[in-house]
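Field reference: sequence -> structure
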Amino acid sequence: YHWANGQKVDGKSGRFSDVTNPATGEVSASLPLASEEEAAEVIAAAKAAFPAWRDTSLAKRTRILFKFRELLDERAGELAAIITSEHGKVLSDAAGEVARGQEVVEFACGAPHLLKGSATENASTNVDVASIRQPLGVVGIISPFNFPAMVPMWFFPVAIAAGNTVVLKPSEKVPTAALWMAELWKEAGLPDGVFNVLNGDKTAVDALLTSPDVRSISFVGSTPIARYVYETGTAHGKRVQALGGAKNHMVVLPDADLDLAADQAINAGFGSAGERCMAISALVAVGDIADTLVDKIRERAVALRTGDGTRGCDMGPLVTRVAQERVSGYIDAGESAGATLVVDGRQGEFDADGAGFFVAPTLFDNV
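Structure field:
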C-alpha cells in the first residue's frame, strides 16, 4: 500500500513487485507499483497539507519532532528488524543505521535556531538588508535499497522541521521501513498529509521529477540514475540534490600497521555485504607489503560467518537474487581475466534456512 493523508491507500494500478527476505529467498509481500494517477493523488495530499503546516509555529513543529525522536528511541529495535528482514544486513548493522538516522532527527529538533533569518543595517549607505527563510512546499525524496531508514532520515526530518511536506519514494526492494516510519509520525502527532509514502518504480520517480507541485528532489542511488534525476528534475525547475555511487580505493603504504589495515579492509569491504556507497572494493598495496597484507585479509575473510542477519552472523545476504547473480558474475569475470582468486565466496556453508541470496567474502590478488 501507499501512505497518503495519514492513512493506508491500497494500490490500484494492477502492477506489483515482490518483496523478499534475502536470507531465505521467500517472498514476504507483494508491493503495488503506483500509476501516474496514483502518484498525482499522493502528491496532491502533500500539497493540500502544506499551507497549514507552513503556518504551524516552530514551537509546535519542534514538539512533534521531539515526540518522533522519543518514539524512535523506544522502538528502534522494531525498525532494525524490518531492515534486516528486507535488506538482509545483520541486526547490529541495521541498528547502527537507525542510530545514524536518529542523529539527523536530533539535529532537526534544533530547527528554531537553524531557521533564523538575518538583518544587517547599513549594508550600503542607508540600505538595510534582511533575509528570511521560508519552506518550499512539497519536497520529494527518492531513496535507495541499501539504507532503508538512514538515507530517508538524512532528508525528511529537516524538511519537515522547516515547514515542508514530504513525499518519500523508497526502493521497491525495501518498502516497509518507510511505511513504518509514516505510522510513527502519525503517532507522534504529525498532521495528516505532511509525510507521505509513494511506492513504485520509474513511473513514480518520473511523476515526482515532472510534477509542477513538487519543488525539490533529494536522491541517493547509482550514478547513472543520479544523473537522470538531476537532469530531469532541474529541467522541470526543481532544486535537486542527487547523490551517486562511488568506487572507493584503499591505499596501504609500506609503513602501515598491517593488522589495522586488514581489519579496516574487512570492515569496509564486507560490512553490509559490500552494499554501501562508501564500500572499499579495491585495495592498492604500495611497496613489498602486498603478500603479507593479502595473507592477513584472507585469514580474516575466511573466519567471517555468512548467513541470516538475525543469527549473529558477521555478514548477511545480498538484497536480491539478481544482485547475487551479478556479484557471482563479477567473480567469474575476475577468474576469466586471469586474476588470482584467493578466497572464493560462491560456494560455502551459510547459516540460514532456505535458498538465500548469499555470496561469502571473496578476495582477488594480482588483478
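Note: The mean pLDDT is 96.
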